[in-house]
Each structure stands twice: as structure tokens, then as C-alpha cells.
Design goal:
Helix content is 43%, strand content 20%. Helix 8 packs parallel to helix 9. The longest helix has 20 residues. Helix 4 links the parallel strand 3 and strand 4.
């Protein structure tokens, strides 16, 4: 049951108000890991002390493409080594870095180089998808390029199940495609309202979450990480309900 994590981007408004206090809440809600989307000007030492105090483990850090380069990457390495976090995840490619296949090839080169430098320091690198990676570019998708042109020994993948399903893929089948390169899963259910699709609390949508968890366990993923972007309840209630739902899924 150590695999329940929360992507703190989900509750970023709470983190902005009181980062350390919010970590205490995350632990009380039943999560065992926190995945970071920024550190809110908190030193690695202070953050590690808070994680230890609240019995939370680092479940990865989401960073941007620029943070995988040169001095920024060195800073990320130093910070995360002090934090005890061994997984950095490229969270998002801004539009100017994903206009065509050549952009994705350049991103793959950056990932390979950063993955090599991180691996040398005992850290790992992953890639987190949205929907735009699945857009067809003359017979190939951006995800095809990222998967085929990155070194499996250097670059892993964090599959966002919602965005895969949103783009028309079966998340379970896609997990088979990733195989041992699948390192973590973003657990996010999908509600369909008319022609609109939105993320929702686990178990309130249409995704086959039990099959996703079963397949994730087959691949021994490190973390099942809750993330949500659309809300019908307040953030704390949403996070608590997701924690309970994920706990039940992992027990089934």
C-alpha cells in the first residue's frame, strides 16, 4: 500500500498558501507519496524534514524542458539528491517545442542527454503525456518519436491514463506498448458529459480503473499517482475521496 501518491499540482492553490501545512494534510488523507510540481521556495532540507515528519515519500518531481539543460539540470540534481527523490519527470512541452516531428526529435535528444546525466548521478528520468503527443504528423505521432528515439535505459514514461483515453487509446493496451519503460501511472478518471470529457474523482467516470491497476501491478510501477484538473467539490474533499478510491482499487 506504499504506492498511493498525489500529484501536488492537483491542489496547487493549497500548496501556494501553505506548502508544508498542505503536506501534513496530504499524509492525513491517506497518501504515501507526494509528487512535486515546484517546491514553493522551500529548501530541500526543510522539505525533506517535512516529508520525514509526515511519513511521506517523494513520488517524483515534475519539471520543464528548460530545467533539463545545463545549470538548471545541475540545480535539479542537487536539490533532488538532498530531498531523496530519484525520479524527475518532464511534465509538459509548451507549444513552441511541439509543432512538428523535428521538434519532438529535438525533445528526444534533450531527454537522452539529460537521462544520461541523471543516470550518472543515480537519478531517473521520465516523460509525462497530455493529449497533444497523440496528434498525427504525417503518419507518426509525437509519442511515437519520443518512444522510438529515446534510449530505454535512460528515459522512462509516466502514463497519464486520462489523456491516453481522451485521445482514443485504451490505457491498458498502451501500457503493454510501454512495457518495462512504464515507471509510474497518473490515475485520473474520465467523465463524459455530452460532447465534453473531463477529469473526475476515481470511480465516478468511465475508465476501467481496476484493469489499469492490475496491469500496473504486473509491470511493478513505482507509484499510482492521483491527479485531477476539473472539480465539482473543494480541493481537500476531492483529494480525500481520490485517496480512498485509490486505496480500495489497490486492495482489490
Amino acid at each position: 500500500m506504499q504506492k498511493r501518491g498525489l500529484q501536488l499540482y492537483t491542489i496547487r492553490e493549497l500548496c501556494e498558501k501553505d506548502f508544508i501545512g498542505t503536506l501534513k494534510q496530504v499524509s492525513s488523507w491517506g497518501y504515501k507519496g507526494a509528487q512535486f510540481a515546484g517546491y514553493h521556495d522551500t529548501s530541500a532540507k526543510a522539505l525533506k524534514q517535512a516529508l520525514d515528519h509526515y511519513d511521506l515519500k517523494p513520488a517524483g518531481s515534475h519539471i520543464g524542458l528548460d530545467q533539463l539543460k545545463e545549470d538548471e539540470l545541475k540545480r535539479q540534481i542537487e536539490y533532488n539528491q538532498m530531498l531523496g527523490n530519484d525520479l524527475l519527470v518532464l511534465a509538459y512541452l509548451i507549444e513552441e517545442h511541439r509543432k512538428n516531428i523535428d521538434d519532438y526529435k529535438r525533445a528526444a535528444e534533450t531527454l537522452n542527454h539529460a537521462g544520461y546525466l541523471l543516470n550518472r548521478e543515480g537519478l531517473n528520468l521520465g516523460y509525462h503525456n497530455h493529449d497533444f503527443e497523440f496528434v498525427d504528423h504525417g503518419g507518426e505521432t509525437g509519442y511515437d518519436i519520443l518512444l522510438n528515439e529515446t534510449d530505454p535505459s535512460l528515459v522512462s514514461f509516466e502514463l497519464d491514463c486520462y489523456w491516453a483515453a481522451y485521445s482514443g487509446y485504451d490505457p491498458v493496451q498502451f501500457m503493454d506498448r510501454l512495457g518495462e519503460r512504464l515507471v509510474t501511472l497518473h490515475m485520473k478518471d474520465m467523465a463524459v458529459k455530452g460532447t465534453e470529457k473531463q477529469s473526475t474523482i476515481l470511480g465516478k467516470g468511465e475508465l476501467d480503473l481496476e484493469s489499469i491497476v492490475k496491469k500496473g501491478n504486473q509491470f511493478s510501477v513505482l507509484w499510482f499517482i492521483v491527479e485531477q484538473e476539473h472539480f465539482e467539490k473543494d480541493l481537500a474533499t476531492t483529494a480525500k475521496e481520490n485517496a480512498r478510491a485509490l486505496e480500495n482499487l489497490l486492495r482489490s
